[in-house]
């Protein structure tokens, strides 16, 4: 049996495409925030500063990053819900 005969007998599968959904931009920003937090963490590990200041820097940047992601997700979800409301005529 030739290779081309085997390919003809195999079932064809449909192409699955993933758009990332309406929160795709937020997912990308989450990756950026995580990379920035990793950078801050590595900076504080290499920096010989007071422990309370290192903790404050890591905690503060974590809170700022989480706040940014929550704010962006809220804005995008509100925009999506508003667009769905307009589409349904409500």
* Residue runs with pLDDT of under 50 for 5 or more positions: none
How confident overall, as mean pLDDT? Answer: 85
Give the SSE order as H and E letters.
HHH
Number of helices: 3
Structural class of the helices, strands and pairings? mainly alpha
Strand tally: 0
Residue share in helices? over 70%
Description:
The structure is a single chain. By secondary structure, this protein is an all-alpha fold. It has one domain. 74% of the residues lie in helices and 0% in strands. The chain contains 3 helices and no strands. It is flat. The model has no long low-confidence stretch (mean pLDDT 85).
Keywords:
90 residues; mainly alpha
Give the structure's gist in a few sentences:
It contains 3 helices and no strands. The protein is mostly helical.
Q: What is the secondary structure topology, with strand pairs?
A:
Blueprint: H1 3-9, H2 24-46, H3 51-87
Helix pairs in contact: 2-3
């Amino acid at each position: 049996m030739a290779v081309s005969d085997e390919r003809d007998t195999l079932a064809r599968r449909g192409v699955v495409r993933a758009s990332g959904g309406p929160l795709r931009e937020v997912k990308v920003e989450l990756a950026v925030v995580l990379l920035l937090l990793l950078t801050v963490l590595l900076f504080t590990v290499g920096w010989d500063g007071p422990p309370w200041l290192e903790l404050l820097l890591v905690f503060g940047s974590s809170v700022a990053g989480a706040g940014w992601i929550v704010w962006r997700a809220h804005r995008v979800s509100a925009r999506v819900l508003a667009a769905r409301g307009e589409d349904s005529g409500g």
